[in-house]
Design brief:
It is a single chain. The chain is mostly beta strands. It has a single domain (about 10-155, about 170-225), classed as Alpha-Beta Complex (Fumarylacetoacetate hydrolase, domain 2). It is built from four helices and 18 strands. The strands form four sheets. Strands 3, 4, 5, 8, 9, 11, 12 and 15 form an eight-stranded mixed β-sheet that branches. A five-stranded mixed β-sheet has the order 6-18-17-13-14, with no helix packed on it. A hairpin with a 5-residue loop joins strand 17 and strand 18. The N and C termini lie far apart (about 35 Å).
Length: about 230
């Protein structure tokens, strides 16, 4: 049956060495580095993982990004992204690794001013996270191992702003996959942004941002004004 309207093609991410990875859903983990939780005014020892989602068409492969609408306080958040080749429900942590396709360097862009307003109003903060081009991601490196360590670093205009290690994750990659699968049926094409370390901050028009994570291809983007 023919489409009644035409839309853009479904989003996909480049794979290092060739090919593309079609994106089904984007899951994100909040409050997953203790020092970042503290800098945001939270308690790193409380609760379960904090999950939220971004629309699949929030994917941006790096390069030029138009400064988002409706914000004067846009924040960067460097994150390791896990790409899944399969999934399921109620996955055991010891089985989580077999669903991993690979990893990428990513950046969760956040309209922090809107997030604060939503939190103050005890309202959902989708509009703070689900912004256009708000899921920056570099090429996916094929890697089926379970990563537990490695440098994660973000710089703005050449100045390091975030510098940590994946070993500082509160919830490990297997724990994240297992926990997510109790709420959602995970499937091939899902991406998981695993959380950001301390050092988040604002970026503005003209800034150049670079995210580097061990054993992945770095990703860069710059912000320009809207036409």
């Amino acid at each position: 049956m023919a489409n009644v309207i035409e839309i853009d093609h479904p989003p996909a991410v480049l794979v290092e060495g060739g090919g593309v990875f079609p994106v089904r859903r984007i899951f994100c983990v909040g409050k997953n580095y203790a020092k970042h939780v503290v800098e945001m005014g939270g308690d790193p020892k409380s609760g379960l993982p904090v999950f939220f989602t971004k629309p699949a068409d929030a994917i941006h492969l790096g390069g030029t990004i138009k400064f988002p609408l409706a914000t004067t306080n846009l924040h960067y958040e460097a994150e390791l992204v896990v790409a899944l080749k399969s999934g399921g429900e109620n996955i055991a942590p010891e089985e989580a690794g077999r669903h991993i396709f690979g990893y990428a360097a990513g950046c969760d862009l956040t309209r922090r001013d809107l997030q604060h307003k939503c939190k103050d109003a005890k309202a959902p903060w989708d509009i703070a996270k689900a912004l256009d081009d708000g899921a920056v991601i570099g090429p996916i490196t094929r890697d089926e191992t379970v990563r537990g360590a490695g440098t994660i670093r973000l710089s703005v205009n050449g100045e390091t702003k975030q510098d940590s290690d994946l070993s500082n994750l509160i919830w490990t990659i297997p724990e994240i996959i297992a926990s997510l699968s109790t709420f959602f049926e995970l499937k091939a094409g899902d991406l998981i942004y695993t959380g950001t370390p301390e050092g988040v901050g604002s970026i503005n028009i003209g800034d150049q941002v670079r995210i580097e994570i061990d054993a992945t291809t770095p990703v860069e983007f710059n912000l320009v004004s809207r036409p």
